[in-house]
Amino acid sequence: MASHPTVTVVIATQDRPELLRQALDGVRNQDYPGDIEVQVVYDNHAPDYTLAGGDAHRRVTVRTNTRSPGLAGARNSGILAATGELVAFCDDDDAFKPSKVREQVQLILEEDADGCVAGIEIHYGDKLITRVPQGTQIHSEDITRDRMTGAHPSSYVFRHDFLVNTLGLVDESIPYGYGEDYDLLIRAAKSGRIMVLPRAAVDVLWHRGGSYFSRRWEAMEAGINYLIGKHPELLTSQHTASWLQGQRAFALASLRGKRSEGVKAAAQSIRLNWRQPRGYLALGVASGALNSQWVVNRLNERGRGI
């Protein structure tokens, strides 16, 4: 691989033009001396082709999702169209810090790695929270013991050949696309050498009211069940099993007609780890003492999700 390989940044989007332009500015302002191309992939929305163009070193291509509707299909459309030796993801409401690409490419080359993740700075209202994954490399046992939420998908960079021919594309079968980034990182840690850049390299914008999936509790419950079935090793750690059951309990407790199931899942989470707070929060929601969206808003203020 060349000392400054071409990097393709895949940005999946729908209808958030102002945020998308901020994401594009973040890519254009990289201090990386090599070429960066951007694949903007519109999912289920008319594309804005006026965004295409740029110079030879920061070229932007606009296309539509030609695969399964949703984030996973949109990302895969961009991956398959990529011409770079490396592929990076960026959510349309995030922005790369200026040195992000340069530092991650350098680390991949120095360590002869297959990929790299980095930390993030979360912007929530007037709050700023920094989250950085621990360690220098993501091992399989690490990612199945710890969700590593600091390793945000907007920090992912992979060798294109590794991503397409060894790791495989983003799983488009996950219900609602919930947890597709976690699934990809689990598989990457099993299949290759994934390094950690030990600092925040991405600005992540969290919106008041929570993300799409924090409001779609059925998506969370179905997605967690799918991930457990696909990666049964997640349940070998009491810590991870308790956290997953706590998430599932909270989702069920937030759904009408599923609160009794939520109580059972919450009890299971607490039995596995009495320090896991999600089980108790789920019980509060199931009893009516807590409102699920209020809980999510309070957690987001601390840079955390359910």
Automatic annotation (TrEMBL):
Domain annotation Glycosyltransferase 2-like: ranges: 8-135
Keyword match Membrane: no
Pfam families from the UniProt entry: Glycos_transf_2
Keywords annotated in UniProt: Transferase
GO MF terms held by the record: transferase activity
SUPFAM superfamilies the UniProt entry points to: Nucleotide-diphospho-sugar transferases
Name this protein carries in UniProt: Glycosyltransferase
Organism: Glutamicibacter soli
Lineage, highest ranks first: Bacteria, Bacillati, Actinomycetota, Actinomycetes, Micrococcales
